[in-house]
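I hope you will forgive my troubling you with a question about protein structure. The full record is reproduced below for your convenience:

——
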Amino acid sequence: MCENAADPSAWLTIPELVEALDETPSRVRRLIDEHYLIGSRRNGAFAVPAVFIVDGRPLSSLRGTIMALQDASFSDDEIIDWLLAEEETLGRTPIAALLAGHKSAVRRVARTLA
């Protein structure tokens, strides 16, 4: 995992993502454009929550979850907030459930939000 992943408040800017993912800036932007990662400008510079990076790669179950939430008309900020907030039906945060391998349960809840 990324060294900042244990801290849900840690965010990575594009240059930090380039280093964490060992990719070019254009490849990092493509990962964002193709919904493998999602970020926000809420704190100034565009950044992605560090917890979305696992073993130097975007969390594999994140893309489908992002797309399900976009289908439910969530904005990027709303998607990030939902992933990082406690979800009563899951008994934890959706990102924690994804990290534990429970993508079906997370997506089932996400689909009910439409």
Remarks:
- DSSP finds six helices and four strands in the chain.
- The radius of gyration is 13 Å.
- Residues 62-71 form the longest helix (10 residues).
